[in-house]
Amino acid sequence: MKEDRERLLNYFEEMKALEESTRDYYTKISIDRNFEDQEIKDTFKRISEEEQKHADIIEKIINIIKYNI
């Protein structure tokens, strides 16, 4: 059971890191002065905010696994 728990934690930690990395990339695009189209920048900002929401959900899952399994 402990091995399954650790495997799950590792999986979700990797997933969270991917979401955060993606969020950071989209945030960089949203503030990049090389992109002049504000609509594109706004779109990437919204996407980065959604990626943060995904990371927050995954953090909740990690906590459930840590404290309940």
Kindly provide the radius of gyration, computed on alpha-carbon positions and rounded to a whole number of angstroms. Answer: 16 Å
Instruction: Pick out the low-confidence regions.
Output: none
Shape: elongated
Overall residue-averaged pLDDT value: 96
Helix-strand string: HH
Structural class: mainly alpha
Number of domains: 1
The level of helicity is over 70%
Summarize the structure.
The protein starts with a helix and ends with a helix. The radius of gyration is 16 Å and the shape is elongated. 88% of the residues lie in helices and 0% in strands.
Tell me what the structure shows.
The structure is a single chain. The chain has one domain. Helices cover 88% and strands 0% of the residues. It contains two helices and no strands. It has helices spanning 2-31, 38-68. Helix 1 (2-31) packs antiparallel against helix 2 (38-68).
Identify the notable features of this structure and list them briefly.
single chain, 69 residues, mainly alpha, 2 helices
Question: What order do the helices and strands come in, and which of them pair?
Answer:
Blueprint: H1 2-31, H2 38-68
Helix pairs in contact: 1-2
